Amino acid sequence: MTSHTALSPPANSRNDGLAAEITKALGHPVPAEWQQALHAAPRHLFLPQVLWLRDGNGGYAPCDRGSDPERWWAAAYSDAPLVVQFTEEEDGYQVPSSSASAPSTMIRMLEQAELGDGMRVLEIGAGTGFHAALLSARLGSERVVSVEIDSELTAQARTNLAAAGHAPTVRCADGAQGWAAGGPYDRIISTCAVRAVPPAWLEQTRPGGRLVIPWNTAWVGYGTLTLTRHPDGSASGPFAPFGSYMVMRGQRSGIELGRDVLRAGQVPQVSHTTISPWAVAGNDLDALFAIGLAVPDVWHSWDTETDAAHTRLWLADDDATSWATVDYDGHQTDTFRVSQHGPRRLWDAVEAAHRSWEAAGRPSVARYGLTVMPDGTATASLNFP
Fold first, then answer.
1. At a CB cut-off of 8 Å and minimum separation 6, what does 103 contact?
2. Which sign, positive or negative, has the C-alpha torsion 338, 341, 347, 352?
3. Catalytic-labelled residue, pool 8, 98, 99, 101
4. Per-residue model confidence as pLDDT tens digits over 180-212
């Protein structure tokens, strides 16, 4: 059998091809310092023997480097996220729990960070170690600290980094607490999304420093927040329209992991709406983002297998105390049946958020910003600053 090394093109060629893909995604050439970093951190050194690739049916299928080397190498040097770890939930359901992010998204985040020589950086979420390797190649390993909550990933990241010739500090700890021993930092960059900025991150960032953080709401995981730390301990900054990352483990809601919201004896309130469920939960990321900010802790999912309707949009809150459904009967597209139960009228709130977004001129993600106080409380604003 031919080895995977023999089948792979030279390292420079692989990285040049990846840089070309990243350039296309960015809309501009990869900055020289990050081109150099990509060559100093070959992506294949940070990937496991088995990758989990999209199967075209909404799931994942394994791709083993030993049995399918050509496909494995093509995936390794593609500008695409790659699932590297699954976690089994209590009901036996397997969910992705760690992934190697798309390189173009990483480069975008690194551009947002505006790194300079001599800066110290804290990375939240070591993962495979690839992002820490890029930081180390740019700044020097001695200026990079990475925190990873998963002990197996921590060990593997250290091994991968050593194989690539980098030696940043990698600690196994809860990323929400940062790593005070290595601070204060000029930059904090998170490779997992958050729904609330941990106060420890603000405490450990120098005044004038930056934090680059993928954003997530229960409604949609999208957007990247860049904060500037102020002398009073607060921070503020705009959102950018890119990035979709897994949520930090401590901020994942139980409802998303399969908690049932229906209870015996519930009698929902029935009404009708003229707003299509696809308008609030379709493919318009600007609308999804705005609703997620305006209606916190509310998730949605689609159901096409119910006997009650042709297509049903489910809404529920993280406390599993309120829920709503919006039904499409397969024919009528100007009126939809709504059922709501619980102390929160979830559809009413989502409908109001969508109407406000439309009244504001359907603003894009880039028109929003966030101000975070030292205790972590945050206020979103339109037309930031």
1. 18, 21, 22, 38, 43, 79
2. positive
3. 101
4. 999 999 999 999 999 999 999 999 999 999 999
